[in-house]
What does this fold into?
Amino acid sequence: MRFFSDNAAAAHPKVIEAIAQSNRLDTAYDGDAWSARLDGAFSALFETEVRAFWVATGTAANCLALAALCRPFGGIFCHRDAHIEVDEAGAPGFFAHGAKLMLLDGPGAKIDPGDLSAAIGRIRKDVHQVQPHALSITNASEYGLAYRAAEVAALGAVAREHGLGFHMDGARFANAIVSTGESPADMTWRTGIDALSFGFIKNGGLNAECLVLFKTELADEIAVRRKRAGHLSSKGRMLAAQILALLEDGLWLDNARAANAAAQALAGAASDRLAYPVEANEIFLRVTDGEAAGLRAMGFDFYDWGPGQIRLVTSWDQDGGDVDRLAQAIAAL
Amino acid sequence: MRFFSDNAAAAHPKVIEAIAQSNRLDTAYDGDAWSARLDGAFSALFETEVRAFWVATGTAANCLALAALCRPFGGIFCHRDAHIEVDEAGAPGFFAHGAKLMLLDGPGAKIDPGDLSAAIGRIRKDVHQVQPHALSITNASEYGLAYRAAEVAALGAVAREHGLGFHMDGARFANAIVSTGESPADMTWRTGIDALSFGFIKNGGLNAECLVLFKTELADEIAVRRKRAGHLSSKGRMLAAQILALLEDGLWLDNARAANAAAQALAGAASDRLAYPVEANEIFLRVTDGEAAGLRAMGFDFYDWGPGQIRLVTSWDQDGGDVDRLAQAIAAL
Amino acid sequence: MRFFSDNAAAAHPKVIEAIAQSNRLDTAYDGDAWSARLDGAFSALFETEVRAFWVATGTAANCLALAALCRPFGGIFCHRDAHIEVDEAGAPGFFAHGAKLMLLDGPGAKIDPGDLSAAIGRIRKDVHQVQPHALSITNASEYGLAYRAAEVAALGAVAREHGLGFHMDGARFANAIVSTGESPADMTWRTGIDALSFGFIKNGGLNAECLVLFKTELADEIAVRRKRAGHLSSKGRMLAAQILALLEDGLWLDNARAANAAAQALAGAASDRLAYPVEANEIFLRVTDGEAAGLRAMGFDFYDWGPGQIRLVTSWDQDGGDVDRLAQAIAAL
Amino acid sequence: MRFFSDNAAAAHPKVIEAIAQSNRLDTAYDGDAWSARLDGAFSALFETEVRAFWVATGTAANCLALAALCRPFGGIFCHRDAHIEVDEAGAPGFFAHGAKLMLLDGPGAKIDPGDLSAAIGRIRKDVHQVQPHALSITNASEYGLAYRAAEVAALGAVAREHGLGFHMDGARFANAIVSTGESPADMTWRTGIDALSFGFIKNGGLNAECLVLFKTELADEIAVRRKRAGHLSSKGRMLAAQILALLEDGLWLDNARAANAAAQALAGAASDRLAYPVEANEIFLRVTDGEAAGLRAMGFDFYDWGPGQIRLVTSWDQDGGDVDRLAQAIAAL
It folds into this structure.
């Protein structure tokens, strides 16, 4: 019974079906009929004109965006626990040619606007210190918290005041949207986001994420950078097809709802052990080593997350019986 | 009737089937059961111990290899018409941090060992001139010629003499193997190749290529560089599954045989118009603008390739009737 | 009797004196009184508002300019024999993060506007091929030819038409100005130059060159890049002092006049052996190996420059007697 | 009366004299007679065979060393207050192609071996997290503390255990040597240092630092990287001459002794206000805003260093009367 990662879950059957359907000769790269529909589909979803680029991984989406928002000699604010800082092997430094990640603290891997302002204030405005060019936040956060649109807007105001580009790592964007009930538009460009890494792989996709540009004047540059990073697939239609399948009839929302609901069921059984509020599909529990061992002995798979803490992640296809069993086991600890 | 690119062809049904079969929960990234079989499968094929890494594009395979074989301050010899020079948006400069491509001429996009030696000899051995660190060849070449193992060995000898890493871009490796009848081992590590970009996408695959390391001590570095470039897919099993499907029962060779045979059928009808010998699945024909227009009016799709020349490419799934019709049309010009 | 390089000549006594005079406590980096005078001095010289940055080497001046004029994913046109291509250890690729040098031919290391246009025309306007962002020329050229302002303007028109930044490597700018009689303004910004590497080191300076920006909006970026490349000297006043000493009373022009005159004296004695017209302070002579050996046996130092050719370079402090002796020796060959 | 930076002080008269003496034709770059003496001079000083490279700035020395000790995909441990992190405009990320600085805390900008071990232990050994390749310490530290050889050795042991290269930023190496009485050999290679940025500019030099390699197999690479970064001066003899002048008769030690003594005189008058022990030539004092204003009104120049703290720096040429006056003023606060 696996609760270790949404990353490793199966893709939704409609995604596999879409790949099969897209498997016929078409123009190579992103000149095909499927890829051509992306801009329109995302523009409709976000209620504004956007440019949408499929890529194969979240790291690629994040770092292409950051490279376009931050010159090589600039800095990017992010949380100390951000995926781009902790889990991408230094990819931001690679894609952005040595640009510097500037780390902020904050509970639950969320950034506070006041902390951001203060950090900017501590940087001398001279050539000796790296000047910030961009801000990146993760929504839902690495600890399963969802920024509300108003919170994003407050950060966006600071970013705008200081001329920072604003990126959202939305590896679990769907979970955040479902959790907060905010509209995709309110959560992004209306609150100042320039570029969104819109995650599908953790939410029923196979290997397609989408980089959505609200700052559309970056589109030409992103297209070149994507190719230059080896991310322009010649049969890109199979990436577009996955994304379109998940957008259709709101499948992406259904999947996220299922994952979030499973997380809520677990949270309900463990309210006194929660390290963070459960707002998306991740649950962080305080347990003893013995308790963790006990759960594992019962067949539950999950990661340790520092001393005395474990992480449970639920997926779009999480088995309901497994969730019930785990909820009971936690309650019985 | 399309003869413009093997790049855009459909994937083989067994590849799609393999993707569907691999679509269940497993360990993420390359820890899954499919990915774990790659080293063994390629070691068997190449009759030596190798390390094999799936990646999503040929550009990624090429440039990860080059970055490992050439320090940022070094140079990489390649042909002036090499894909890495002409069609990868400067990706070698990106992945290898500003390393320099050093261009050689030679008919049919093949490199002559004497020309390579001469070029090395012209470089002053001082800090002012970039020193070469690596050599990259394409087999089959960008003009559809296949290096024989002995030719590769002659280049390998020069490379070894000067301490150059040796990379083969095998986007059409299958076509070269079928064309020459050489063994994969003879064509690669036995003649000095350190790293091979083994192409599957143009030969029935969907979006999986394989970087095969004969210089296995580079494996740890490649693993890190792959992640850092955003090329470590979380559901990598779907990439491994494609590759394994094509290796099984020699499907990769069957596919290449079909493509090469179609090319030979066209070449036979156009022997007096061939710009280069046809040894793989590409045919370059001298035609007038009027003749090209005539062929297009008959429904044949292909690219112009410089003035007075067109390129025809055949794929693993090329329709036999289309080939016959084009052969007749060319013969009738 | 040395004719091998102006690079290795002594500095002018006034330069040494200026260093000594600047040697007292002042604000560090470029906040000192000497550095503060550079913008004004060069703005007066060029008859327009410019920004001027001292750096320690010509390579630094060139590559800082190129990094500001060319994004990492772009290309820079230059001559195949340009210093940035041949003699800077790949520094453009380093400073500009993998940007590509795009090589042009042309007699005497000069670029022809028609050739430039044709080269631009051959590049497909897609994401697969590197798109040009900048053009760099060397004046006087690596073979001692001086572009006239009209020639620069013709190149500038092509650059402007295609949105290319335009850089001039003026390691021997003084020699070109003296040779052509053009004004500094006509030779640069009036004909489209955005940034000039204004050379002093080969012309009586010790270790100070000046990067002059006509496109002044790049100044902030250049200031940061200079620091980031380790080129912001804490006692930068000693660099500024050298430059100011050479600008004062036209010393830079006097020095170049002396070097050019020495070159003319040699050229006059060797008119039937000249590989290129002598327009600055370099002379390329066709000689046999025996003749070269004979000259060396008489005590003359110079470089071989390919088979059957030698290079002679004259400096601001070239001994007149040495020049006469060499002229006679050449005439007597 | 200036106490704001040793960076901005005058050069020692013997340094200026040496520059003048070296000002005659010689071989260019580092082929001259002065540069040729460096390896020997530093090998004698360090009692082992070293390779020594002049460069124009401490940033260049530091970052060339780090680029050679850390691959682009690796990390470099340093203190959060290290010059390379705080004051070099991201130069390590530029020179080392996106390598990551990994920050450690510790009083007085010194790193504790236990903290280092713990930080290494927290990094997962997988491809998702940047793996450390190097360690850099500053001696004397940014807060004027001097590591003892035994402390360096303890760090060196950790570095060796984990395969980390070990770099010392010795911008104030002379002050540390004088302060501790350790031998240069004990302070560096005998305790595990691979590369030392040996500072001269803050200690009587003008614009020459020396990168000393104990790991001599990096010499060829450093030579190339220096050129590629635009740091190979054509009249490098003037840099070598400065260094040799300071090494001669221990002038570098005399200068540091003078600066340290001045610092001690100030420290003696302010013992109850010291934020850190005074072990080199920097004094950090706790003062109120009013007290700082009072000192400035009396003509003393210095920097504020965070709220309620000022930094005083003494130089080799600090006026004794000024020191006495400042000591009295502080005592009278």
